[in-house]
Amino acid sequence: VAGGEIVLLGLLAIPPVIAAMSASLPETAVVGAFSLALAVLSLLWGQGEETTQRLVSIGVCASGTLGGLWVASLRVNLNREQAGSELLAEAGVLMEDALDQRQRAEHVADLAVPALGEVAMVDMVTPDGMIERVAARSEGDQVAEAFLRLREETPIDPHGAHPVAEVIRTGRMTHLNRLSDQEIDGITTRENERELLRKHRFRSCVVLPLGARGAVLGALTLWIMRRGKSFDETARRTAKRLADRAALALDNARLHEQQSHIASVLQRSLLPRSLPKIKGFEASSRFQAAGEAY
How many degrees, rounded to 5, is the angle at CA 237 between CA 235 and CA 243? Predict the structure, then answer.
């Protein structure tokens, strides 16, 4: 009977592995803890001559628990990578539907929330070198609208210490944790900006450069505001891939806008300066660039 108990004790290593195949990581941990608790209780209840065998069985049970947690962790990461790939595929489809740069920036922000963070903001460099916030999204529109209004009133200084400005200047991603009041004071220039950042203080933040064809067009900022969550390596890798794809789409939109403007100017320059005067008729005209007629 004792030998049978030892075998059954070793079988407690199996439930955590089975749970890891379909349950979440916390659920797998609960199953593993329950199995270990049963194994330890059996050691306390067992006879002294079987203690060594029971300890071995507890070791086997612990190995099963650790193995189950490892499998569950791998499965979670695999699911996240798959979700990231699906997000990028969706990004490609959505951004190709819009030719306007601002619309594409809005699509990027829409995709990032809530898949990657709870707040997403897109800032672009204007032709005169200023930084303009062109899109913002959040879970609940209050935060996004507040920071859009803020940047209309107080644009980011391209030469300042703000993380967005630094990322645009350096072309390197930055990862920030919760900012202290002193750190907020160091990156802001006005009191209304400080108050807003203190009111909506993030827990974790990544700012990614939007770089394409050798130039940095702007930056994508993502925030996590909930306790206990942060941008881990998998999340940062997915965000980087989204930023790279978005940057190329935004640059294509910029080039399209430039070409459309040039074509419109050239076609307009070929038009006669005035319409011919025909006796008995009133003539009027309307210009539409050929590329916009289809």
Answer: 100
DSSP assignments along 28-41, one per residue: HHHHHHHHHHHHHH
Query: What span, in angstroms and rounded, lies between the C-alpha atoms of 35 and 129?
Result: 62
The DSSP secondary-structure symbol of 7 reads H
Maximum Cα interatomic distance, the chain, rounded to a whole number of Å: 122
Q: Which helix (H) or strand (E) holds 133?
A: strand 131-138
What would the pLDDT profile of 226-239 be if each residue is shown by its tens digit?
888 899 898 999 99
- Contact between 267 and 289 under an 8 Å Cβ cutoff? The reply is yes
Strands (E) in the chain, as ranges, are 119-125, 131-138, 174-177, 204-212, 215-224
Contact 189/154 with Cβ under 8 angstroms? yes
User: In the chain, what percentage of residues exceed pLDDT 70?
Assistant: 82
Non-local (6+) Cβ contacts of 190 within 8 A are 154
Separation in Å, CA 42 to CA 12, 21, 48, 57, 112: 11, 27, 12, 10, 50
Collapse the DSSP code of 137 into the 3-class scheme (helix H, G, I; strand E, B; otherwise coil) and give the result: strand
At 168-207, the pLDDT tens digits run 999 999 999 999 999 999 999 899 999 999 999 999 999 9
- pTM, two decimals, is 0.69
What gap in Å lies between CA 170 and CA 139, rounded to an integer? 30
Quickly state the pLDDT bin for 266 (edges 50, 70, 90): confident
**Backbone angles phi and psi of 55, in degrees to 5:** -65, -40
Q: How far apart (Å, rounded) are the C-alpha atoms in residues 4 and 61?
A: 16
Which residues are paired to 19 by β-bridges? Answer: none
Residue 52 has a pLDDT of 67
